[in-house]
Protein 1
Amino acid sequence: MTRSPIFETFRYAAILIALAITLVPILWMASMAFKPIPEWQATGQNLTWIPKDPTLDNFRFIFGESSSNLIVALDRTAVQPIVASLLASVLGTLIAMTAGTAAAYGLSRYGSGQNLPLALLQLRLFPPMAVMIPVMIMWAFLGFMDTWWGLALIYGIVTLPFAFWLMKTFFDDMPREIEEAAMVEGCSRWRVFTRITLPMMRAPLASAALFVFILNWSDYLIALLLTTREWVTIPVYMASLSSSMTGQLYGAKAALGLIAAVPPVILGILIQRHLVRGLTFGALKQ
């Protein structure tokens, strides 16, 4: 069926509008990151998209170097929050994907534990604050407060339902005949899972891992409640970038936001050949 030129025009116009709405905040953040303090404190007609006097002072400032434009002093640099976010997010993603994949495969292939999906989903049904209050008490008793491994553990628990539901959908769409043929040839269930099923699920695993990583990487509430100083993450540290003299340090926040966008983008680029296939896995079945 041939689409009319008017329909195609409206379709491309809608795509361009959606793209503009998506890119405008990112472009503004990138512009703000290179502006000196007089420019990102400007208002009204003085606001500009392109920095008049580009500078790297905002990046130097968050990493502890002296700046002629930013006269305030930081009590800590952005290095520790970046390391904390990387450690907690990566380990939390590994925990969620390992447990979620194993549970999803077992339920998809064996069908036992029919109440497990609902039980895992209940982790996301309660208000976050109602869940975090007992978690704070438990973590304080165990000595996990303000530690990257304690943060990673709760990240893995919180994002486990997402990993489970995503992987269960992928396993349900995968033909069982391939596994059954391998078992007829003498392969054990474990060998079938590790040598046949998991290699075939590379694309779904990559897309699910990226989704879980982004959830962990962008978390604010959990890190705010479970960290105090030593292992605060990027979102918590970013919220503290303010001064009684200059107010909110928008240039420093934009610089840190630009840095924080790098790991998800790099991860997305590395797995881009699996991403589209993973997101559409099982959509087209013979």
Protein 2
Amino acid sequence: MTTSDATSDAARAAADSAPAPASADIGVYGLGVMGANLARNLARHGHAVAVFNRTPARTRRLVERHGDEGDFVPATRPADFVACLRRPRAVIVMVQAGAATEAVIDQLRALLEPGDIIVDAGNTFYRDTQRREADLRESGIHFVGMGVSGGQEGALLGPSIMPGGTEESYARLGPMLESISAHVDGEPCCTHVGPDGAGHFVKMVHNGIEYADMQLIAEAYDLLRRAVGLSVPAIAEVFRSWRDSELDSYLIDVTAEVLGRTDPATGRPFVDVVVDEAGQKGTGAWTAQTALELGVAVPAIAEATFARAASAASAVRAAVRDADLDAGAAPAPPASKDEETALVASVRRALYGAKIAAYAQGFDLIAAAGAENGWNVNPGAMARIWRDGCIIRARLLDDIARAYQADPAPVSLLTAPVFASALRQALPSWREVVALAARSGVPAPALASSLAYVDQLRAPRLPAALIQGQRDFFGSHTYHRVDDPDGVYHVLWSQEGRAEEKWS
């Protein structure tokens, strides 16, 4: 080899290892299915995307398979990845939530400069996002907690995107994110949710509503099968027909597909060969826990979370089954065709009423957290960006968006004229369905608790008065009187005569 050849080889090696010019509009760190699809979506929409994965083979595979979809700038080292980005740099982190995300943030922090942006697009608990945002703010780095809904297909074809963080960060990110989101009537399913943890909070509530919606649908299926007596193929057809009703939604579509599948190995309905234990990744529990802390009633979400826990308690379920606790509960007698048709219609109306209640609970929680944290979240905007791209997309959200347009701060969505009218029509059937479930021994915790929630809100008096009296008796917790609501009273329960004292 000549000296000139050796010099050329060294030059080529140096060029291969040198970082590309700072030409990428945005970077994606983490190229699992979701990260790779987000990167592809960005590239397809004309954005130059720097891509990096801890395992270089994934980076190479992405570029080899999809490099013709747009402008990808691959990097094999974090420093080169950051060097590829134009200023202010913006990096979307799409790795496993928790310790992995924390490690990547620490790594990027050392490489970035004031004014740069780190976006956590995973399912992170919003309080962790608040903590990280405050910490990075001290370094001048913007931290954005961003909810992304729609699964791997949505990430590629157009998700619903819920970014939090500063307004300055959204000015940089917004045009790109809006371009890759789903669109409804030309409007992007993406908006700036609010500061610090607002984006991840709204995504958490979205998932909580998703839990409730899925549980309500599952209970409707169970009632149609075990209380009404329909076959699985017949129930699949019922759900297909509901696509043309007020229940029209992505989850109704999914349900029809799942129920319509036959297991090729056994010839049985697919749903019958799946173990009846529902998994969960924590967002439902986070939603219920946060609601308890904020004092907001979300029984549909809580019951859906508890139902998944109960489904996984296989040993307990087996023991209680063996105990044969309720010989009186039995399936309803076979219904006539007319009765069957009427019952199916009742289940449809009950399901719709319960869905209204579940969504209302979620929006109540967003309002409470927004007030608590000073986020100023626009609930109508949340309804609009959930109309497509996300798992809970549904016709119902159009009505919710219009309700908030008419009244941006209602006391409850249940009082909006469109929903008040729908609930008046649904409640008789809803009561019938919950009673049928109880008589038949078919568990319907989300349907029943959502009905109780509506009845609690509409009741002129609640037994909470008795509870407050009990609390005053054993704990001197005091109470207010209806004829003096501002006064604080206590009964001297342990003294003769049990006189009432006004404490303030």
Protein 3
Amino acid sequence: MFISVFDIFKIGVGPSSSHTMGPMIAAENYIALVNSLLKQNPDFKVARIKCTLKGSLAFTGKGHATDSAVLLGVHGYKPENLIEVDIPILLGQLNSPTLISHLTTELMFDPEHDIKFDFGDALFQHPNGMIMECLDENGERIHHEIYFSIGGGFITTVDEINSIEAPIKGEPAKLFPYPFNNAELMLELANQNQVSIAEMKLTNEKEHLSDVQINKQINKIWQAMKSCVENGLEAEGILPGGLKVKRRAKNLYTQLKNEPATGNVNDWLCAYAMAVNEENAAGHMVVTAPTNGAAGVVPAVLYYFMEHENGTLEDVKTFLLTAAAIGGLIKHNSSISGAEVGCQGEVGSASAMAAAGLCAVKGGIPEQIEQAAEMALEHHLGMTCDPVKGLVQVPCIERNGFGAIKAYTSSSIALRESGEHIMPLDSCIAAMKKTGDEMSHKYKETSLGGLAVTWVEC
């Protein structure tokens, strides 16, 4: 399955790609569908729109602002439209019975009554399910659609999830010049054709986009990542949500700037990664990399390379293309959703992507790049997703720093070896999927186990 670099890296808003961005996109899509039905059929009489959140979307929905996301989506907003918007003010305007202004018929939406958190059993297809419904004046359902938010801002309907691979929307890999669906074939094609992983990914992208378009989009992604790091390094205060978590990145960064001799690569990486995830926790702009909860790892490693190791814009392109190739393999063969496989699928995947990207820009051969990705992912296997109070803050913010450190370390080790190693990346990805499948739902973004229940509110 071909997954574009621009699907792996998407500019959006925090705090969660699967619990905020996905539900917003799904709600917006459903309202567009309803509008189409209203135009086609005058007898289609809708009195009320209802949204029911299931599984992880219900259990951690409040902490992840899922209800707010649905509210924004119903009113026609998408994540990319909100980057420069004061979202709290906008929500204040919408958080009451409010007319859905872009429908062809007048219809009020009352978030207090029309968004339901269902704490019963999750839908069997995926833990992040949501049911969008049209009700008539008697409260009877006249139309509905089931959506799943499957990580990284990707959504799918119930029909699609039963009929497509991974489950993701995309084109078959065989339609592209370098059709690799796994790491083994990726290495085989790279060696047969004497090309890098980034070159193969770029060639595949050119099936749909020109060089100019690709360069423009990659630069846009990089500038968004860079801005997110730098915004986080300047911000202070308490993060929203009730845990009273203080922003710490600026303090760490200030210490490192004032006394650089006391710092090392780990300190810098943590400052950069935490800066991004503090921005995410605040609901500000981030880039899915591959998710919001893991949005700090790739930007931190790339920003460090650019600022401390004299990286170039061409390096940015190589880094992101290589990272996206690895992220696509993980997405296709396992999952990047914390609600599906735990945080190993989020920070673990991000760390593997960052390790591969860094190894590539430092001159690594394909085998070394594959080894770097495998090492980084391997040392996140079994990591649970147990956010305290359902917020993407504890342990998520620090965890991105450690993911960046593991990525840097994995790349460094791989570059000192030949690329020969015992555990292939494909086997590690398979192990992650199996581990996630067998992991209790309590540790998969429900806040029903782990740190989420051992923390006691004072």
Protein 4
Amino acid sequence: MMETISEHGCFGGVQGYYRHESAETDLPMRFSVFVPPQAKAGGKLPVLFYLAGLTCTEETFMVKAGAQRVAAELGIILVAPDTSPRGAGIEGESDNWDFGVGAGFYLDATQAPWEKNYRMYSYVVHGLRQAILREFPADPQRIGIFGHSMGGHGALVLALRNRDIYRSVSAFAPVAAPSQCPWGRKAFGNYLGPDREAWKQYDASELMRELQAPYPHGILIDQGLADKFLAEQLLPEQFEAACQAARQPLTLRRHEGYDHGYYFIQSFVEDHLRFHHGILTR
């Protein structure tokens, strides 16, 4: 059952915040949804899932990105989950900003003590998606996904592994090769264990190397060149090379003067919504 936390009129639609019990995480999960004004006319609308980055919540994108105005114009439902389970009571889960609470990395943990609750991959792909299709006028045949940083990693991975579900994918400054960066090695080592073969299923660059043009209509990535995490953590050149090998059309835009924050996302979020709309309404 879905509990309404709050709802707010927004650009003729409704911005809402909700909570439900998740079978995947075995905990209550919070998420946010923007329903555009076109929903009042009836019928199903395209839906776009946004995965946020480290330390963020289900509120971050909806409050900071300024996406509702364009979503209202285009008639797109926006959905943003939280970035991890909360309240698992695991010792030390809140000790680090880049691991544990707020840092679920959109994977299904296999290592104790994380494996019971830290199952964000299954939650987003199955539990949350099913709840959205049940409770909101979302078209199951027109689903896209995008995200930022850790969430950009999640969006790419979920899309590449579930091409039958997600018809479009894009990212802002994604952690593009997590097996090769400190954030990814820390998360994967603790959540998945030391076997690096097990890491590949959650590494977009590794996944792309095994495919051939999985998204023929293209993938869009925006990256700020003033991003302090670019060289050590994000590694977009790894994903770019993998796309070239896979003959995957990729638009990787590099922007002078833009950093890793939401001013960057605000600047280009309209492009992403129009990119997804163009694919989801073909």
